Amino acid sequence: GAVKVGPELPRHNVMLDRRTVPAGITATTATTSTLGDRRFAPLVGERFDLIVSNPPYVAAGDPHLERDGLPFEPALALTDGVPGGDGMACVAHLVNQAAAHLRPGGVLRIEHGYDQAVKTRTLLCDAGFVDVASWCDPAGIERVTGGALAPNGAAS
After folding, report:
1. N or C: which end of the chain has fewer CB within 10 A?
2. What is the pTM for the complete model shown?
3. What are residue 152's phi and psi, to 5 degrees?
4. Which one, of 156, 150, 57, lies nearest residue 107 by Cα?
């Protein structure tokens, strides 16, 4: 599904981790940059009010990759590819790099796996984010976690 953030954030600088812009985002409601390759290098010096990301988070070798239509998806879109890893490498990279690209008080939201909310909250807290929380999907499973950069722009 699409993430609809533009109407709620008029005239804010929003970065979405997508190759296409979701419904509800227009040039009149937000300035949008895409982060299709999941690297911050092209964004040196840019600051955002909101970063929303759906990074690859499935552990390489996870049996879910072989069912439910996932075999037809590119592996790069689903897993970080770390053999024996827990699927958190891209999430950790995003958390570790986000503070350098958020304005003071800026918000980071990350979609993650059904069993990764606690790890994601820990990463955010360890990186100095505040107001860290997780939100449930319609099935009641924590699937999005986020936090805010302190209003003074500090993150440890």
Report:
1. N
2. 0.72
3. -85, 0
4. 150
